[in-house]
Amino acid sequence: MTQAITGQLETTAGQVEGTASEIAGNMNRLLIDLQPLLKDFQGPAGKTFQGVQIDVERQLKIIVDSLNEVARGVRESGKEFDVEDSKAVEELKKTMPDSTIIDAL
User: Fold this and answer.
1) Other C-beta atoms within 10 Å of 52: how many?
2) In the chain, which residue ranges form alpha helices assigned H by DSSP?
3) Residue 17 near residue 70 (C-beta atoms within 8 A)
4) Fewer CB near the terminus (10 Å): N or C of the chain?
5) pLDDT tens, per residue, the chain with 105 residues
6) Which domain range does residue 97 map to?
7) How far apart are CA 77 and CA 68, in angstroms?
8) For the domain that residue 8 is a member of, what is the CATH number?
9) pTM of the model
10) Contacts of 70 (CB under 8 A, 6+ apart)
11) How many domains does the chain contain in total?
12) What is the helix (H) or strand (E) element at residue 41, kind and residue range?
């Protein structure tokens, strides 16, 4: 049971990292696709366009960093769960001489 939950948490962490990577890739492609439009903006409009682009890049980094932090947290919670669950099993084994039931859990 512990390995199943730990494995699920590891899978979830990987999915979160994959989502972060996908979002970053899509946004970077969008920014690259928008770049040719910059030449069409003159004066203040061009500066505004560049400012928005910089802000989007900054916000994208925050989103990706946050998702990666979530993934790290999920992965660490899986490790912690595994350790705590093992400790609980050991405590139960101390109180129950016949550990076949505990082993089945």
Assistant:
1) 11
2) 2-34, 43-95, 100-104
3) no
4) N
5) 556 578 888 999 999 999 999 999 999 999 999 888 888 888 998 899 889 989 999 999 999 999 999 999 998 887 777 665 666 666 656 666 665 655 555
6) 2-104
7) 14
8) 1.10.287
9) 0.67
10) 16
11) 1
12) none
To which residue do tokens 């899509």 refer? 26
Task: Provide the b/e sequence for 2-32 (b: ≥16 CB within 10 Å).
Answer: beeebeebeebbeebbeebeeebeebeeeee
- Please identify which residue in the block is written with the tokens 């998702």: 67
Only one residue has tokens 């960093």, namely 65
What is the residue whose two structure tokens read 């920014």?
A: 31
The most distant pair of C-alpha atoms in the chain lies apart, rounded to whole Å, by 81
